[in-house]
């Protein structure tokens, strides 16, 4: 079992409160996933030609030193904003080149996200501890996904925690379990998709990245996923400008969506949505099996 | 009247009150359920419980004799294993509402999701809207009435439960067939619709049930024991 939440703002006035709102939702999903928690938050996109990379180190990571190394090897203007065990690096550099160089050369840090706007923070521990550690309540942004994990398919480590980001700004959180992830991972590796773990949910993210890379729209990629992913899932998916929800055809993993004029929210349970201002007036529904729900900023 | 505000208060206090003999003939008002689980579970005595707001998993589970009304939506497992009494939801119900219910009346005024009435064992379930796939799977006894449409695989491996559907059936499950509406069926359905407060005529519905062709219905298979 796991808990997932997603929140997509429609009115700019809410962007400064996004972290507080999504933290309240995440904490309500503690009973569904007390092992670890994580949040992907989309905010403050970098300008064209630049990239934002979230790095995970340990609590003693020397981010000044990492910043110096990035400046010497990638771009002289590289910056790192440290947030507890993570650091958000921005630099004027090709995304693939930067990510490959970091993976190959920086032993003590691991990439949790690459993109223009996405930042991912995740750790082992209770959601409330993770929220406090990263000061998630104070974060601003346009949309966010969150996950509370009760591991069933792989180890309880920070690396195995959600959200998973496999392509630029694409991010996925998953409640469920996939049964054909091993074979699919091999197939996707052969297609050039990189994986960091043996986690089944990372394969779902990788699959969507692969389809998007082949020119599919997000909706087309999700349509194809219904045919190619075998198992149980409720997914919440984020892109730089968009937000989507998808359940498998059997739909035994719960999901609820609520929408007001100001926001769209999804969660495993209504309890999380009940934390949001204005939920009393929201349109609330249970997403249909094998049906794509998506929102995008025009 | 006893009032329970669930904002910041445990559900257990409400449920304990419903388990006591003193609950008999009382009225309970519940506010701010906020999607909490197990609201009004295990009620044992005739009483009325009115819940204002949305509830989470397993609301009104194991109900005996109480009349429970929810002014909101219900999460998964509503009225699971209900024995008697009634449960009414003014909004929608999530998956497997009325699962394994032995008796009583469950009314969903909106839609019910997948697996509605799975393995029902004698209750009456009336849905004002539509229901999801795999509903009444292995339903053994009782009646399921759907005023809207059904999802796929309705009544798969059904035993003796009767189903009445007013709208479109997505598809029928294994060993489930359409059956003729005889006068006795029209009569029982009309009475049930009135009891549930649905303003439809029984002759707008079609009846579905077991073809009785699966393994357990073959008398020759008794030799295996």
Folded structure, characterized:
The complex is a heterodimer of chains A (298) and B (225). With 298 residues, chain A is α+β, with helices and mostly antiparallel strands. Chain A folds into 2 domains: 213 residues, 4-Layer Sandwich (Glutamine Phosphoribosylpyrophosphate, subunit 1, domain 1), CATH 3.60.20; 71 residues, Alpha-Beta Plaits, CATH 3.30.70. Chain A has a 7-stranded antiparallel β-sheet. In chain A, strands 9-10-11-12-16 form a 5-stranded antiparallel β-sheet. A 4-stranded antiparallel β-sheet of chain A has the order 4-5-3-6, with helices on one face. In chain A, β13 and β14 form a beta hairpin. In chain A, α5 packs parallel to α6 and α6 crosses α7. Chain A starts with a strand and ends with a strand. With 225 residues, chain B is α/β, with parallel strands linked by helices. Chain B has one domain: 3 Solenoid (Pectate Lyase C-like), CATH 2.160.20. Chain B has 2 helices and 11 strands. The longest helix of chain B has 14 residues. At the A-B interface, α8 of A face loops of B.
């Amino acid at each position: 079992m796991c808990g997932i939440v997603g929140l997509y703002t429609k009115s700019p006035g809410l962007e400064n409160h996004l972290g507080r709102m999504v933290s309240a939702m995440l904490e309500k999903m503690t009973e569904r996933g007390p092992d670890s928690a994580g949040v992907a938050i989309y905010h403050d996109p970098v300008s064209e030609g630049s990239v934002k990379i979230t790095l995970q180190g340990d609590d003693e990571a020397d981010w000044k030193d990492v910043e110096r190394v990035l400046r010497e090897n990638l771009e002289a203007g590289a910056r790192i904003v440290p947030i507890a065990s993570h650091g958000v690096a921005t630099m004027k550099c090709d995304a693939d080149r930067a990510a490959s160089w970091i993976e190959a050369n920086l032993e003590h840090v691991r990439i949790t996200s690459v993109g223009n706007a996405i930042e991912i923070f995740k750790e082992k521990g209770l959601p409330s501890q993770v929220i406090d550690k990263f000061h998630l309540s104070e974060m601003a942004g346009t949309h966010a996904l969150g996950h509370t994990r009760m591991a069933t398919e792989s180890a309880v480590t920070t690396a195995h925690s959600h959200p998973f980001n496999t392509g630029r700004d694409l991010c996925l959180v998953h409640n469920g379990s996939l049964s054909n992830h091993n074979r699919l991972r091999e197939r996707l590796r052969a297609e050039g998709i990189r994986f960091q773990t043996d986690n089944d949910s990372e394969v779902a993210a990788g699959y969507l990245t692969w389809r998007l890379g082949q020119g599919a729209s997000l909706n087309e990629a999700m349509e194809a996923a219904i045919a190619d992913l075998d198992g149980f899932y409720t997914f919440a998916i984020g892109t730089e400008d968009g937000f989507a929800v998808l359940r498998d055809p059997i739909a035994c993993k719960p999901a609820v969506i609520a929408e007001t004029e100001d926001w769209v929210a999804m969660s495993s349970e209504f309890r999380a949505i009940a934390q949001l201002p204005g939920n009393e007036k929201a349109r609330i529904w249970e997403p249909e099996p094998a049906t794509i729900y998506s929102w995008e900023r025009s | 009247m006893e009032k329970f505000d669930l904002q910041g208060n445990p559900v257990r206090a409400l449920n304990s009150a419903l388990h006591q003999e003193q609950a008999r003939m009382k009225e309970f008002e519940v506010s701010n359920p906020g999607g909490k689980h197990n609201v009004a579970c295990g009620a044992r005595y005739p009483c009325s419980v009115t819940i204002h707001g949305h509830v989470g998993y397993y609301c009104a589970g194991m109900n005996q004799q109480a009349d429970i009304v929810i002014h909101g939506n219900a999460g998964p497992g509503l009225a699971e294993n209900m024995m008697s009494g009634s449960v009414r939801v003014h909004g929608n119900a999530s998956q497997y509402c009325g699962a394994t219910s032995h008796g009583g009346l469950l009314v969903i005024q909106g839609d019910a999701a997948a697996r509605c009435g799975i393995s029902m064992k004698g209750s009456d379930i009336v849905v004002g809207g539509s229901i999801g796939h795999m509903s009444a799977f292995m339903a053994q006894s009782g009646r399921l009435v759907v005023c809207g449409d059904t999802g796929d695989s309705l009544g798969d491996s059904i035993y003796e439960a009767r189903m009445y559907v007013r709208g479109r059936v997505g598809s029928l499950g294994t060993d489930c067939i359409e059956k003729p509406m005889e006068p006795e069926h029209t009569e029982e359905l009309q009475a049930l619709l009135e009891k549930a407060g649905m303003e439809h005529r029984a002759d707008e519905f079609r009846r579905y049930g077991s073809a009785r062709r699966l393994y357990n219905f073959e008398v020759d298979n008794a030799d295996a024991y």
